[in-house]
Write a structure and sequence with these properties.
It is built from 3 helices and no strands. By secondary structure, it is an all-alpha fold. The chain is flat, with a radius of gyration of 18 Å. InterPro entries: Fido-like_dom_sf.
Length: about 60
């Protein structure tokens, strides 16, 4: 089955760098990691123009 390439055997959990096989644990760690990244962005925002209009113009060019 193709899912076995991407999921842990017998589960529908995607293989991950943390090697977590439990849905709830993975969900908790994903939330924690997302919060950490958001804090980093709030403290040190990325420089540049990231608005939608700019990106749509780049696609059209």
């Amino acid at each position: 089955m193709a899912d076995e390439l991407y999921c842990y055997p017998g589960t529908d959990i995607l293989r991950n760098k943390l090697d977590i096989h439990d849905h709830e644990k993975l969900h908790i760690y994903e939330r924690k990691l997302t919060m950490l990244r958001l804090r980093e962005l709030i403290k040190r925002p990325m420089e540049g123009n990231f608005d939608l209009e700019y990106h749509l113009e780049c696609l059209i060019r």
